[in-house]
Amino acid sequence: MNTKLDWLEVKLRNMQSIKEYSPKYSPETVAKQLGIDVTEIIRLDKNENLFLSKQFFSKIIKELAEELDPRFYPQKEKSTLIQNLVKYLDLPSESIILGNGSDELIETIVRVFLESNSTAISIAPTLIMYRIIVNNHGNTIIDTFLNDDFSLNVASLLSKASHKTRLCFICSPNNPTGNQFKIESVKEVLKKFRGIVIIDEAYVEYAPYSVGKLIKEYENLIVLRTFSKAFGLAGLRIGYCLTHPNLASALKKIQLPFNINKFSLQLAIKLLDKRNIVKTSVNKLKTERERFYNKLCEIPGVKAFASNTNFLLFTTEKDVDIIYNTLMRHGILIRNIGNILHFGRCLRVTVGLPKMNNKFLNIMKELCCS
Ligand SMILES: Cc1ncc(COP(=O)(O)O)c(C=O)c1O
Questions:
Q1: Secondary structure (DSSP) of 16-42
Q2: pTM score of the predicted model
Q3: 102: Cβ below 6 Å to ligand 1?
């Protein structure tokens, strides 16, 4: 740059501490290293839905290819999708806001409600995105450890709040522990916390209950949901919030008008019409999850945790790096999570199709029994 701009130099220097989100590897790089085609990589690292087939989506996409006119901005599609969600969730349209994935909605919530010098509270371990987004906005997030059985320690969580605390993030079912918190604990937080409580229900379709309807009772509740998991649209980026109309209206005001593309919106509309197929796939996953969990527990030295999601958290007596790297050499990607409470280093694996899980289990058995 020829002209020296002092303010820009300061800005860029200050931004050096912010880390860009960049995954350590991609299926493409792993496939290249292994000399195999990327389609042969078994992706069990991001909790995507493998129970809805690619053919199922291809058919819908072909229909859309005829109907969609990309020359025009999205117009009616957002309200049509909201109307479909009204029927699906039995909640009023004024309480539903759409976002470009729930990530974008977390960002919108932080932008609207976290003023400078205010703070957020959350739990540990949980989804890292809350911390990243809050920190990127120059705010602090203070977390509290879950109990040893992964239940919520409500008193400890609330003790982290001060008069400056505006937001409380609770992921339920929680990523990466996989459990859903008791509704009584969630209600206690809603009653006692003097701020907005965000319950992230990204995995709720795999769990026993949703707190969605509680928005009628608690004006400080925002429920985050997504099409990325049970609905299989991780690549198309659609999330939504359920909340009191007053909060919804504040969030909508700062959203960009065309934040979700027309193709994604139309696909989600069609998918909601086919929600019985989605439901069937969720039930199949749940059955497979139980089988997978039981088989994993049978392997010597493995401790797996029961799950209300589409993934399993586990730890092993064997070095987790050896497990992780060996699986990767066999073309299976899972997630290295790091330390979880007093359980030491843990790994997280998505519940894949039975054939994929069996390949994973066979390698695990070989490693843990050697
Ligand atoms: C708990 C949780 N919330 C939100 C997200 C992000 O969802 P989306 O794809 O809707 O941005 C994820 C993704 O893994 C997640 O695990």
A1: GGSPP---S--HHHHHHHHTS-GGG-E
A2: 0.96
A3: yes
Quote the ligand 1 centre to 202 CA distance (angstroms).
6
Q: Output the pLDDT for position 2.
A: 63
The amino acid occupying position 6 is: D
Residues making up the chain, counted from first to last: 370
Atom 12 in ligand 1: residue holding the nearest Cα: 202
Q: To 10 degrees, the CA torsion angle through 81, 101, 228, 238? A: 20
- Please tell me the distance between residue 294's alpha carbon and the centre of ligand 1 in angstroms: 26
- Domain locations in the chain? 24-47+277-369, 54-273
What one-character-per-residue DSSP string does 268-304 give?
A: HHHHHHTHHHHHHHHHHHHHHHHHHHHHHHHSTTEEE
By CB atoms closer than 10 A (0-12, 13-18, 19+), residue 183 is middle
Question: Rounded CA gap, 352 and 14, in Å?
Answer: 42
Provide Rg for the chain, Cα atoms: 21
What fold does the segment set 24-47+277-369 form as a domain? Aspartate Aminotransferase, domain 1 (3.90.1150)
Please confirm whether the linkage preceding 176 is cis (ω < 30° from 0). Answer: yes
Ligand 1 binding pocket includes 226 (Cβ within 6 Å) = yes
Low-confidence residues of the chain: pLDDT under 50: none
Amino acid 25: pLDDT: 85
CB of residue 239 inside a 6 A radius of ligand 1: yes
Ligand 1 geometric centre to CA of 138 (Å): 22
Does ligand 1 have an atom closer than 6 angstroms to the CB of 243? no
Contacts of 119 (CB under 8 A, 6+ apart): 139, 140, 141, 142, 162, 164, 165, 166
Place of tokens 């701009």: 5
Q: Is the dihedral of CA 292, 297, 302, 308 positive or negative?
A: positive
Mind listing the pLDDT tens digit for each residue in 10-37?
Answer: 999 988 887 787 778 899 999 999 999 9
pLDDT at position 21 is 79
Q: Which CATH architecture has domain 54-273?
A: 3-Layer(aba) Sandwich (3.40)
DSSP structure class, residue 220: T
Q: Compute the distance between CA of residue 144 and CA of residue 59 in angstroms, rounded to an integer.
A: 46
Give the end-to-end CA distance of the chain in Å, rounded to a whole number: 59
